[in-house]
Write a structure and sequence with these properties.
5-stranded antiparallel beta sheet, Jelly Rolls, mainly beta, 163 residues, 4-stranded mixed beta sheet, 11 strands
Amino acid sequence: MSDDRWKHDGIRVVHACDLDPNTPQTAGMNRAAAITTATAGAQKLWAGTVSIHADAKTGAHHHGELESVIYVVRGKARMRWGDQLQFIAEAGPGDFIFVPPFVPHQEINASADESLECVLVRSGQDPIVVNLDIAAAEAPTAASWVDPIHAPAPLEGCSPPPG
């Protein structure tokens, strides 16, 4: 006799055509929800896509107590963050970006002619988006975090860590 207990309580596939654009938005980007409580029964994670048009940038915002991970699928992301968006870093296809809770940030598409396509994962289901009115620093400071314990040799095509 087969055990069907996982048939309805197991794996969920949310197809690209079923993404839900009815999520809180920030000017300059389009978010669409994929994995939520409603679509997949997720309780602790939210996942979706974000698209930023060529040569566009989002408004400054944060996501409250949520942690976010952004995976760059296509294009070049330029991230600014801080109380005056005074820090800056870039990421390309295959790179991951971690955004800690309450960090004011702005996503920028660094390409003038290609859209920036990313996958976004958050640590909770609450659709927290706090849009901010921040006067951005004119000359942001390049910043990167280097893990002093696990600093690996750079992969082919990757820049070595500063310092």
